[in-house]
Amino acid sequence: MSNLAEEVTEFGARPDIFRAAREDNAQMLRAALDAGESLTQVEEQTFRNPLHIAALFSSRNFIREALAHRTAEPWSKDGSGLLPADLCWLKNDFETHDILFEAMYYKGWFLDLFNDQANP
């Protein structure tokens, strides 16, 4: 177990990736990942992963940290077919939406749309 997992445990909290998402706690996210939790885990009823939960709670620090991890899936859909970015959009949280959107599309993707149409 890493020092981060031990630090969080010392505060009396088990490293829980969904709690970290709700509380915008990047340190707990790292500890949960170190303890074997994954960003691909889903809640049983909603099929939402931690990125969905973070999007609902506008947990921008958590999202930035999570997107740097290899198991982050910003394109994953929940049980209603919504992406984490969709949940931000629905609640008019455009700042968090933009963080997810940038992770989903590379810079310059919009210009490539026009280049592809101009050069069939």
UniProtKB/TrEMBL annotation:
It comes from the Bacteria. InterPro entries: Ankyrin_rpt-contain_sf. SUPFAM superfamilies: Ankyrin repeat (SSF48403). This is Uncharacterized protein.
